[in-house]
Each structure stands twice: as C-alpha cells, then as structure tokens.
Amino acid sequence: MATYREIREVSDMAGLEAWAESHEAPIARGGQTLSGRAIYSATCGCLTLVCVTPEKAPAPLVWRSPFE
Fold first, then answer.
1. Residues 30 and 50: beta-carbon distance below 8 Å
2. SS3 of residue 32 by DSSP
3. What pTM value is reported for the model?
4. Rounded CA gap, 7 and 67, in Å?
C-alpha cells in the first residue's frame, strides 16, 4: 500500500492560522531556511500546509552544560 502526503505552501501566517483553526490542527515551528527565515507548518490527515515567514527566525537556543 502506498502512502501519499500533500504539502502546500501558503503565502502568510494569517492563512496558515485560519486553516489550522478550521481543521483543529496545531501549528509547529519547523526550523529555518538556509537564508534564516522561519518555517511553520500545520498538518491534518495527509495534508500539510507550510508558511515561510519573511522575517529572520530567532536564533536557536544553545545549551551549555555547567559540568563541562
């Protein structure tokens, strides 16, 4: 049996938030592009909507052990 997933990009966060709310799907931060823009997505069933924001993503947290 084959599994299919459809991934679509929306133009802005408002569109992603509206779709996620109507489908009761949580929005997750998926990381960032090579140019440093934040990527957000929401998944319902086999459909995932993705939004790449125009602003730079916040820097990732770096944890340093106090024992090193």
1. yes
2. strand
3. 0.76
4. 43
C-alpha count within 13 angstroms, C-beta hemisphere, residue 34: 0
Phi-psi region of 45 (alpha: psi -120 to 50; beta: other; left: phi over 0): left
All residues at 6 or more sequence positions from 17 whose CB lies less than 8 Å from its CB, including other chains: 27
Q: What is the rounded distance in angstroms from the CA atom of residue 46 to the CA atom of residue 35?
A: 28
| Residue 42 burial class via C-beta count within 10 angstroms: exposed 0-12, middle 13-18, buried 19 and up | buried
Give the CA radius of gyration of the chain: 15
Q: What are the tens digits of pLDDT across the range 18-61?
A: 999 999 999 999 888 888 888 999 999 999 999 999 888 776 66
Cα separation of 22 and 25, whole Å? 8
